[in-house]
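TASK: fixed-backbone design
INPUT:
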């Protein structure tokens, strides 16, 4: 449930990663989740050169349908695995993880990384009222995934 500064930073990070994938001629997919639904924003395929408009249009805020997002990712990854069984798949979850449920790890991945936006200030006033819950680190451990704080990625660039 990213919004405000967090959503803008996540979009900037996504744009940098998509450019990185384009330069390396790698495939990618993007699944967005906010409000009440999860949807495929960018279907699996080769990264393209012009991404600013579709990334800018990604909404944020509202409820976080995390289970729906992970279930959709599972279906997308399974279909991709059937047609490209030898493809190396890395999954990145970008979220502040402000949702109560624990999520099952998606299969059909070789690498999982949880990008934690919780410590990035949402808005100056709300950041002071909102305690840090540490759910991203817990989820990364449960998924046997890498954990990265979003604030650390902005200075080092794409993976």
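OUTPUT:
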């Amino acid at each position: 449930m990213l919004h405000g500064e967090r959503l803008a930073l996540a979009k900037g990070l996504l744009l940098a990663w998509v450019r990185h994938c384009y330069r390396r001629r790698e495939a990618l997919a993007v699944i967005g989740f906010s409000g009440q639904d999860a949807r495929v924003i960018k279907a699996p395929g080769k990264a393209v050169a012009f991404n600013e408009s579709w990334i800018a249009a990604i909404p944020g805020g509202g409820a976080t349908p995390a289970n729906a997002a992970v279930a959709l990712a599972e279906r997308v990854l399974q279909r991709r695995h059937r047609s490209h069984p030898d493809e190396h798949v890395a999954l990145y979850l970008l979220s502040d993880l402000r949702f109560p449920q624990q999520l099952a790890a998606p299969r059909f991945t070789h690498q999982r990384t949880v990008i934690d936006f919780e410590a990035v200030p949402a808005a100056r006033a709300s950041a002071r009222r909102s305690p840090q819950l540490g759910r991203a680190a817990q989820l990364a451990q449960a998924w046997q995934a890498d954990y990265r704080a979003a604030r650390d990625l902005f200075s080092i660039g794409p993976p």
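COMMENT: Residues 4-24 form the longest helix (21 residues).
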